[in-house]
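> forwarded from #structure-qc
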């Protein structure tokens, strides 16, 4: 009789190295708390160096957007999944907006977050939630 590893290998890929979620309130301190949690989580799954820093930066941008554009004080969900060399971060809030990539002028105080996500991630996207909220996600291939 085979063990669990034999069964798993017949069914497909191994389970993810990390699949976790953090919930923070949409308030000023949320981006910092989420960034640090994401950074520690992916480091614990073996993702380090520049990839970890990019993931931390982009996660902070998505949470910042959720705080600024979503309903104040409402929950913001930050999900992190490390699956082989692929890292996925998804941020969900109860806001109804859809993020847009802007190319802000150097003198503008904001508006660069989604341009960073577009430039530094392998892929990214959005999804509308059944409750009317929005999820914005990015993936980074750590082998690139």
């Amino acid at each position: 009789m085979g063990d669990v590893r034999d069964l798993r290998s017949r069914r497909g890929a191994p389970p993810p190295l990390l699949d976790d979620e953090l919930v923070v309130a949409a308030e000023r301190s949320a981006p910092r708390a989420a960034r640090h949690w994401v950074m520690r989580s992916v480091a614990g799954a073996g993702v380090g160096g520049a990839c970890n820093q990019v993931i931390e930066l982009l996660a902070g941008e998505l949470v910042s957007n959720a705080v600024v554009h979503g309903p104040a004080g409402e929950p913001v969900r930050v999900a992190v999944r490390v699956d082989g060399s692929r890292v996925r971060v998804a941020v969900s809030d109860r806001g109804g907006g859809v993020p847009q990539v802007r190319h802000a002028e150097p003198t503008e105080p904001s508006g660069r977050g989604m341009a960073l996500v577009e430039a530094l991630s392998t892929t990214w996207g959005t999804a509308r939630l059944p409750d009317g909220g929005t999820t914005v996600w990015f993936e980074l291939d750590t082998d690139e």
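QC bot note: The two ends are 40 Å apart (CA to CA). The chain has a mean pLDDT of 86.
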